[in-house]
Amino acid sequence: MLAQEQYIEHPNHVPIQLEISNLGTDNTKTRCYGGIRCRWQNRIPVGRLLKLSLPQISPEFFATVQVIWRRLVGNDYELGLVFIDPQQAYQMRMLEQVCHINCYQRWIFEHEGRLLDPEQAAIEWISKFAGHFPKAVS
Description:
Elements: E1 7-9, E2 17-25, E3 35-40, E4 48-53, E5 62-73, E6 76-83, H1 86-112, H2 118-129
Parallel strand pairs: 1-3
Antiparallel strand pairs: 2-4, 3-6, 4-5, 5-6
Helix pairs in contact: 1-2
C-alpha cells in the first residue's frame, strides 16, 4: 500500500466521476503507479475496479483505478484509489495538477484579491508546490 503522502488529494469542489468498471473486482496483488484520495457519496467495495474521470478538466480521458481502502468521513466515504496503468497514472497526475492550479488561482483571488490568469497561476503554483506534489510510483 502507498504511504499517505503518496496519494494525490483530489480537491473536493472539482467534480470527479467514478463508474463501476466492467472488469469487476480484482483481489489479486495489483502493481500500482501512484494513487489518488477522493470523497465519494456511496460505499464502494475494496478491490473494485473503477473508471475515474474529471469531466470538467478533460471529458475524454479516464483512468482505470482500484479501490485499495475506504473510510467513512461524515456522510461520505474517503477512497484510496491506485492507478494500475503507468501512462494513465502520469496523465491523471497532470490533470490533478491542473485541478490544484485552478484551486490556487481561486484561493489567491479570495484571500489576496489578486486576479491571476491561468498561466500566471500555473507559474506561481509550480514554483511553490510542484516539488512536493506526489509522484507516480513504479
